[in-house]
Automatic annotation (TrEMBL):
Alphabetic keyword roster: Amino-acid biosynthesis, Aminotransferase, Branched-chain amino acid biosynthesis, Pyridoxal phosphate, Transferase
Pathway recorded for this protein: Amino-acid biosynthesis; L-valine biosynthesis; L-valine from pyruvate: step 4/4; Amino-acid biosynthesis; L-leucine biosynthesis; L-leucine from 3-methyl-2-oxobutanoate: step 4/4; Amino-acid biosynthesis; L-isoleucine biosynthesis; L-isoleucine from 2-oxobutanoate: step 4/4
Reactions catalysed: L-isoleucine + 2-oxoglutarate = (S)-3-methyl-2-oxopentanoate + L-glutamate; L-leucine + 2-oxoglutarate = 4-methyl-2-oxopentanoate + L-glutamate; L-valine + 2-oxoglutarate = 3-methyl-2-oxobutanoate + L-glutamate
Broad class of enzyme this protein falls into: transferase
EC number annotated for this UniProt entry: 2.6.1.42
Matching Gene3D superfamilies: 3.30.470.10, D-amino Acid Aminotransferase, subunit A, domain 2 (3.20.10.10)
Entry protein name: Branched-chain-amino-acid aminotransferase
GO MF annotation terms: L-isoleucine-2-oxoglutarate transaminase activity; L-leucine-2-oxoglutarate transaminase activity; L-valine-2-oxoglutarate transaminase activity
N6-(pyridoxal phosphate)lysine: residues bearing it: K199
Keyword Lipid metabolism attributed: no
Similarity comment: family membership: Belongs to the class-IV pyridoxal-phosphate-dependent aminotransferase family.
Amino acid sequence: MEIRTTESATRVDDARLVEILANPGFGTHFTDHMLTVEWTPDADWHAARIEPYGPLSLDPATAVLHYAQETFEGMKAYRHQDGSIWLFRPEANAERMRRSSQRLAFPELPVEDFVGAVEALVRADQRWVPPGDGEKSLYLRPFMFASEVFLGVRPAQHVTFMVIASPAGAYFKGGVKPVTLWLTEEYTRAGRGGMGAAKTGGNYASSLVAQQEAIAQGCDQVVFLDAQEGNYVEELGGMNLYFVFRDGHIVTPETGTILEGITRASIIELAGKLGHQVEERKFSIGEWRDGIASGDIVEVFACGTAAVVTPVGTVLSKDGQIAAPESTDLTMRIRQALVDIQFGRADDTFGWMRRVV
């Protein structure tokens, strides 16, 4: 894919950039450029370009504003100690966006074009990739939306794919600590045949009222049960779950109605290399409650792109609580092993990292 580049004439100056990268936060500062590619049935994917970062001009009848035909990805670029810049499993993000596109009736952006687009923006804005100390990185947000101006209900005939980037600080500023969860029994994330396995904004929008409820109960995150029986654990508002048993084996809820996380898939491989068998199966809230009570479940953790891996503590619900597990040892070992690979402090024996600069 040929990408035309127009350099920004109003780049953030070096002194201000140093200030931003010292304390970037998350999703509040954006790089100097953005990447755009368009699709129509006649021209296929075309007009790939990198331009100065700035607002979009959308007609009020733009289809995405009415029918939420939209997908996105979340990934990071990491600066290693020698100054080189790397992506973590970008092909996996590209494949997941292809699956999301299928579910949202979008055209599929080829994997090589997705990866090439992300790499091109990282190269253009490489000065925005912070040093890796304190787990800082450059967060990348590829996204696709129905940009056709049309109010009819059908798959869009004009689609726009974009990539923007934002420097990100460590998810846990005061160090990693167990998160407290609220078990929602009123709201569900997705049902059989729904869009739970697609990374689309509607899935996150549907989680917000339950997350709001969790915060009101003094919790950090919300955990959802399945829509059919209200019995099986699915995922958090934005993270997948793992349960570590005393005998060393690990269980994670099976996918189908939940998002297939890139971090989730990586942990399955990493845990196996560390000698822990990982099962993907249905896991009931009763098994969680009984496993903690009996001591059979010794650790619970969640994972996602932003937090990487975080231990799970107490679960609160209208019916009482599930106590915090007794340990976080394996959780923290897995977390450290994964972070060390991402930041180049350990050998990448899995072939997950891809050098950009």
